[in-house]
Amino acid sequence: MSSVGTNIPHDSAVGHVSGGSVYIDDMAPLRGELIVDFVWSPVAHGRIRGIDFGDAASFGHLFTYRDLHHNLFGAIIQDEFLLAEDVVSFIGHPIVVIAAESRALIRKAKAAIKLDIEELEPVFTIDEAKRRRLFIGKTMTIKRGDVDAAFASARNIHEGTFINGGQDHFYLESQAALAVPGEFDQLTVHSSTQNPSEVQDVIAHLLGLPINKVTVVTKRMGGGFGGKECQATHPAAIAALVAHKLKRPARIAYSKDDDMCVTGGRHPFQNDYRVAFDDDGVITAAQIDFFSDGGAFADLSTSVLGRALTHADNAYYLPNALIRGTVCRTNLPPNTAFRGFGGPQGIATIENILEEIAVLLKLDPLEVRRRNCYGIDDRNITPYGQVVRNNHLPQLFDEIAERGEYSSRLAEVRQCNATSRTHLRGIACTAVKFGISFNTKFLNQANALVNVYLDGSVQVSTGATEMGQGVNTKIRQIVADEFGIDAERVLLMPTSTEKNNNTSATAASSGADLNGSAAADACRKIRARMAAVAAEYFERAGCGEASADDVVFENGEVFDRRKPDPRVAFAALVKMCHLERVSVGERGFYSTQGLDWDVDKGCGAPFLYFTQGVAISEVEIDRFTGMMRVRRCDLLMDIGKPINPGIDRGQITGAFIQGMGWLTNEELRRDAKGNVLSHSPTTYKIPNIQDVPPVFNVDWIDAENPLNIRSSKAVGEPPLVLAISVWMAVKNALSFLTNGEIPKLHAPATGEEILTRMTSYRHAQHGGDAREVAAPQL
Ligand code: MTE
Ligand code: HPA
Ligand code: MOS
Predict the structure, then answer these.
(1) Calpha distance 734→742 (Å, rounded)
(2) Catalytic residue among 704, 717, 753, 772
(3) Closest residue CA from atom 4 of ligand 3
(4) Is it the case that residue 261 has pLDDT exceeding 70?
(5) What is the dihedral of CA 472, 477, 481, 487, to 10 degrees?
(6) pLDDT digits 0-9 by tens, 531-580
(7) Which residues contact residue 637 at a Cβ distance below 8 angstroms, ignoring those fewer than 6 apart?
(8) Which of 185, 475, 632, 680 is such that its CA lies 20 to 30 A from the CA of 640?
(9) Are strands 87-88 and 80-81 parallel, antiparallel or unpaired?
(10) Rg (CA), the chain
């Protein structure tokens, strides 16, 4: 029986619940190991006039940018100084690296160091950056049709601004690395990274070493969520600097609070839109200007912006579109990849537009969405020119309306809002169409190493990193399936740049797609050689002429399809191959075919396929406090044929709840100087078990995806976007208070945000009488 499609347990499941899983800071201390930390800028923008080290050197070893071979780096634009030179650009910018025998000594060294910094005026907002024209990279544009003409002849025009906040990754394992020096300037760095090859590259570059002297190993992360796609590099490079200079092992592990202060998160966006539509709510033109807060350095911001722009259509056909985007440079920690990678911000903007069109026209928002939804045979080309194939969105909308009992619940919500003095309800349906592939073509490749051992057990190494998402387990299933053996016989090895070179980050939800395909490629090459040996054996065994093409690998056995007797055990065939001096180890490679994307022109087909879904969410708000509860969520997706349905269910559930956190409770607050106030779980509220909707139906349709390995679809990020339905349900609830006006609502819709909005509508309704209580007129 094939293990693909079954729920074998996650390969770390037992380790995670028993404490057996090893993270960087769980690794036993090495002889001579030093603890590493750094002094960072306490001001958001300033010029370093001087550093008084006092007697800090008596407590530990100190390093500054002068100790680096290069200091400047960056994944796309090389604008980032690992250690500040004369200018500091955000609170948290590392200045002095300290390596010491104990944390106590590090604290003493830190206390001894006095920074003399002349404060410069910081920029904290998108508006301010726009005013001062502080941007990162170029403005990007996607354009189709004649937007001006469409607006000139429009029946209705509406405009507004969509604003969303950032989000902290809140992985449970903070950024961490352990660098171990080897012979002749070689280094082995254990890094909690999604991107071992980039960590390797950057360390080599900053230390002036050839790349082959640096090996980066990643066993697992305690969560990454995009936060370790680029920003695991900093701690790894800092530890590597110490190990390289002192020839002693060096370990760094950020505290939770430090991590929340110094690393970037999801990009806040502020998007101006103008939309033209007919009286049925069908969009005829849309113009959207995206502005993201990139923070102090480029990081992945331009690429994140690109994904926002290519998701500004989401599930909806925009016949005429002008979509532009610009990254603003501010004095905040550089923002970076975060589950969805700009897609959620793009999608939230258009979903908000559709909701507002429905309010203006007094139409049902779900009906407006259906009318604008991409068609199957026509109205199926995105603004950037990619045809939307295998479009299941119309079917998904129909099915979710049914399964989510949309009409009857909408009526209930109306009824409830008309009668309840204490509570206000809202309901909304939103969709996701998420493009799968890195939006940078060359990243869509992977290699794998498969070694089969004499007892028939198998080791697999790929560039994929395990961060909890289950990529190891999926690849294990694919490899087991290729060899027709039990998944128990297959082991995924720690990711290492020694075994897999020049790999892409495990990101863009495509870890299993790319690395699973590369592993399958290696398996097929091995299997072909094994089949030839098997065919010879069957011939010798007197079965007549046998052909390798007819050899089948199934249930741990190998046989000729035409004459299933005799059979040989997989392990026995491996031994046979070895005696015949036939190799049972192989490297595989995969690159996604058919991609074509011109980022400068904003056109092409950047994605191999789209993962799709819809959700209906219902919320209830306390009219007196603004406190919001999610009553019920129904999710329906097209994720192809899951390789491991249990893991995919976990991904959908987790992503949705993480998206809910972004859009409801998680609010980053800073003081006027830019210090993060929400730097721990006491002040930054991620969803907990009580926030999970009491009714939470997660399902997917039966659909094929012949474009991808085993007909599966990427699932890691897309469902996060469905949480927009929760935010939209809040907006829907507020629309019961506004007398047909569009309710204003920013994301996140925290209790405070909701209460403020409700209060303003009440005042508007009641002539600003502050004594008026929350209850509506019955
Ligand atoms: N799931 C868990 N448990 N932990 C994570 O850090 N990261 C998400 C998603 N699911 C993440 C996760 C992100 S941002 C991405 S891009 C994908 O997993 C990456 O893995 P994949 O490509 O193997 O799906
Ligand atoms: N997703 C995640 N990471 C990336 C991407 C993407 O689309 N493009 C480049 N890095
Ligand atoms: Mo995920 S944001 O692509 O790491």
Answers:
(1) 9
(2) 717
(3) 226
(4) yes
(5) 100
(6) 999 999 999 988 788 899 999 999 999 999 999 999 999 999 999 999 99
(7) 396, 432, 611, 612, 613, 614, 652, 699, 700, 701, 715, 718, 719, 722
(8) 632
(9) unpaired
(10) 28
Which atom number of ligand 1 is nearest to the Cα of residue 515? 23
Residue 717 bears catalytic tag: yes
Closest ligand 1 atom to residue 340 Cα is 14
Answer whether residue 509 shows pLDDT above 60: yes
Ligand 3 atom with the shortest distance to the CA of 339: 2
DSSP assignments along 444-506, one per residue: SEEEEEEEE-TTS-EEEEES---SSS-HHHHHHHHHHHHHT--GGGEEEPPEETTTS-SPPPS
Taking the CA of 611 as reference, the closest ligand is: 1
Q: Give the number of the ligand closest to the Cα of residue 336.
A: 3
Pairing state of beta strands 187-191 and 214-218?
Answer: parallel
Model pLDDT for residues 430-479, shown as the tens digit of each residue: 999 999 999 999 999 999 999 999 999 999 999 999 999 999 999 999 99
Token pair of 249, please? Answer: 């092992």
Question: Do residues 752 and 626 lie in contact, with contact meaning Cβ atoms separated by under 8 Å?
Answer: yes
What's the gap in Å between 597 CA and the centre of ligand 2?
Answer: 13
CA nearest 736: which of 236, 465, 359? Answer: 359
CA nearest ligand 2 atom 10, residue: 438
Ligand 1, pocket residues at CB < 6 Å: 223-226, 339, 467-469, 471, 506-512, 651, 654, 714, 716-717
Q: Which ligand is nearest to the CA of 653?
A: 1
Burial code (b: 16+ CB inside 10 Å, e: under 16) for 260-270 equals: bbbbbbbbbbb
State the Cα–Cα distance between residues 40 and 233, nearest whole angstrom. 16
Let me know: does 611 contact 434? Beta carbons within 8 Å: yes
pTM of whole model > 0.85?
yes
